[in-house]
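Whiteboard transcription, Tuesday session. T.W. wrote the structure tokens on the left side:
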């Protein structure tokens, strides 16, 4: 049986919670940067599952690792040791500032762990510090704690009372951050580059100032690298562009190239506030997903995809700036590596739909910003084809 797209749509719309406004296609296959729908139409994917499939779809190394692990051991409780989880934690600590990793299943869960660790850290020290400062227009997830930490009222609407203890400051304003810190502040939580908020890159010295301010105040700095991590911006982690490190970092999305995995990484002195029984996840770091993540990270390095991301990102940005020169509807082009945004003066949803009809999957955020986050293996001719398509469409 090969149901057609209207059939799949009707059945899905009748049964699945209506939390997503979906486009009218049903995808059945992915390879490289190409997705195929149930009618056989192909699309070049400039979204990669929202910055998830950084290696492209069904990367052979990940597929092989998943197949092998699925034949060997899918799941055991975190009451026991496993090699895939251990090897992954070693890889992550060797390639980052962190000494310890807590594994979970999503970005929101990774941020939940970071929020809990920051509060627990000061609890263990006997200090009543529990407030967390994050940025306006930030996005940290949809669970109650992470939406409480998210600086967008539309995400929090209808869920009040949200969790107390969160304060918001404008992104990229170090003075506002300094002024917002009080005796109860335990941490600052920031995306190094805001993703859902509109692909916003801070000024070069902002994060170093934030680091200094946190050190002076004796509070923790948490970077949410869920969207920016795993090579997406042209470094393994985006904070590497800014020459500083956080105390805690959260990852998810591209970590296992499409399998659900989140991680919270921390320095030893902070992580030590999480002892046995303090936090847990049944599926966190299960052997299957850990094997996928390990294969993802080793492929990222072996295939020089981060270097490639820098070169392709520079090329893509130059082509978007070419569009900006030609179309007055384009008001800004921004981003780093292959996390790029092009802001229009008008709503961009119609452009997304028209590009889809032409075989390109792109995305619109905050109403007027086209976001591009293709697999890091995207080729220049695929970028050129999208640029030609947008050149035809833009007023
Ligand atoms: C920066 C950031 N943090 C957290 C999240 C939440 O991740 P998840 O949807 O896996 O819970 C996202 C998802 O878009 C994100 O971009």
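and on the right, the sequence the group agreed on:
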């Amino acid at each position: 049986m090969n149901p057609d797209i209207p059939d799949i749509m009707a059945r899905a719309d009748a049964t699945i919670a209506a939390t997503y406004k979906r486009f009218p296609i049903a995808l059945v296959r992915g390879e490289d940067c190409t997705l195929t729908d149930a009618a056989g139409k192909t699309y070049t994917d400039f979204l990669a599952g929202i910055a998830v499939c950084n290696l492209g779809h069904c990367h052979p190394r990940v597929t092989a690792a998943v197949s092998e692990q699925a034949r060997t051991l899918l799941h055991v409780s975190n009451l026991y040791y496993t090699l895939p989880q251990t090897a992954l934690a070693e890889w992550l600590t060797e390639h980052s500032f962190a000494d310890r990793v807590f594994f979970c299943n999503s970005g929101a869960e990774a941020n939940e762990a970071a929020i809990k660790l920051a509060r627990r850290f000061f609890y263990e020290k006997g200090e009543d510090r529990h407030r967390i400062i994050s940025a306006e227009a930030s996005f940290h997830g949809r669970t109650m704690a992470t939406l409480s930490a998210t600086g967008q009222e539309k995400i929090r609407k209808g869920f009040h009372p949200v969790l107390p203890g969160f304060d918001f400051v404008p992104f990229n304003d170090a003075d506002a951050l300094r002024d917002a810190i009080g005796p109860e502040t335990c941490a600052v939580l920031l995306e190094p580059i805001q993703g859902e908020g509109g692909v916003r890159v801070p000024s070069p010295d902002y994060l170093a100032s934030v680091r200094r301010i946190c050190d002076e105040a004796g509070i923790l700095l948490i970077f949410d690298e869920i969207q920016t991590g795993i090579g997406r911006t042209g470094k393994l982690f985006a904070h590497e562009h800014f020459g500083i490190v956080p105390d805690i970092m959260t990852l998810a999305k591209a970590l296992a190239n499409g399998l659900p995995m989140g991680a919270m990484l921390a320095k030893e002195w902070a992580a030590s506030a999480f002892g046995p029984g303090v936090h847990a996840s049944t599926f966190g770091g299960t052997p299957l997903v850990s094997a996928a993540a390990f294969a993802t990270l080793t492929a990222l390095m072996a295939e020089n995809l981060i270097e490639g991301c820098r070169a392709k990102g520079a090329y893509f940005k130059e082509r978007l700036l070419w569009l900006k020169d030609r179309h007055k509807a384009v008001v800004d082009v921004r981003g780093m590596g292959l996390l790029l945004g092009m802001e229009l003066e008008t709503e961009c949803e119609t452009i997304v739909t028209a590009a889809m009809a032409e075989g390109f999957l792109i995305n619109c955020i905050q109403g007027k910003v086209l976001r591009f986050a293709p697999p890091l293996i995207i080729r220049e001719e695929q970028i050129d084809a999208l640029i030609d398509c947008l050149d035809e469409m833009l007023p």
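Someone added at the bottom: The pocket of pyridoxal-5'-phosphate is lined by residues 50, 106-108, 111, 139-141, 191, 195-196, 224, 226-227, 252 (CB under 6 Å).
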